[in-house]
Amino acid sequence: MFISKNKKTNGRYYLYYKDDNGKRKAVSTGTSFKNEALLYLIAFVNRINELNSPIPSLKPLKNFSDLGLKVTDYVANNLRKGTVKIYKNVLKNFTKILGDKPLKEISNKDIEYFKSCRLKKVTQSTVNIELNTLKAVFNIGIKFGWCVHNPVKGIMKLKIPEKGKLSMSDEEVLKLL
Question: Which of 48, 79, 119, 175 could bond to 83 as cystine, CB 3.0-4.6 Å?
Answer without folding.
Answer: 79
